[in-house]
Amino acid sequence: xxxxxxxxxxxxxxxxxxxxxxxxxxxxxxxxxxxxxxxxxxxxxxxxxxxxxxxxxxxxxxxxxxxxxxxxxxxxxxxxxxxxxxxxxxxxxxxxxxxxxxxxxxxxxxxxxxxxxxxxxxxxxxxxxxxxxxxxxxxxxxxxxxxxxxxxxxxxxxxxxxxxxxxxxxxxxxxxxxxxxxxxxxxxxxxxxxxxxxxxxxxxxxxxxxxxxxxxxxxxxxxxxxxxxxxxxxxxxxxxxxxxxxxxxxxxxxxxxxxxxxxxxxxxxxxxxxxxxxxxxxxxxxxxxxxxxxxxxxxxxxxxxxxxxxxxxxxxxxxxxxxxxxxxxxxxxxxxxxxxxxxxxxx
Length: 347
Known about the structure:
This protein is of the alpha+beta class and 347 residues long.
């Protein structure tokens, strides 16, 4: 299966935070191309030991998260509308008039209601709706809904996988399924190669609600070093260019107080040596907003670097990435694992 089709299959799977089981099964099956040592733990983390370099070799962990943002059903009104709360970082500006999928005992299509502009006061039009203002209309009565939907069931925004021009694709949940695809591409490039480190891949759960899955998985794996792969902001005409990367310009290599500067510098030097496109992302503040925040402080601490795929329209059902960037991230990771001197654990 080529990279684009792997990404399509990942994006089309269902995996809101806390209910990543379906996506975990899809990702685990893809990992079985590279190892038989694949497990899905009780938190829906997929953990795969891909390469064993021997008892005394350092272990490196690659991480990308499985989960996608969504909503959770909190109430069914007497009129048959569903009330919801966020499950992850929803952008409330997007929700009105969106088509959604309610994941109850069976999947139900719903519509988030929107008051006609003819009935909306001028001051209302200037306000971003609150989550309590959101109601999902499925067409069912309260009794019919109660037979299918339970409180706590998840809801996803409907976003189809669409191919755009110039090697770009759009879909829901490219954050972070594009990064799963990057790691899989890196594993493809490593096939048959000898590494100086043991390698474990983790596709982790619950990143969008705080990184619980990555914390659990890192404790189990106990790596000496980790590379966290996530998405970051690709420039759009309405965004500050200084705070964004650019699509088609390669991996965004992270620099932050909590990240290992030596790993980042080595990736930059490697990119220059190989002639790879790359971008430097200076992450401001004490945290990165990725699983690196959990990985770095697990057990006695793990030296960690973040490499990101540039992505437009984050946390929407129409996220966009360029496939060349997805591949370039995987290639950088593979080359780093092959070229780094793993004989010194702290290096």
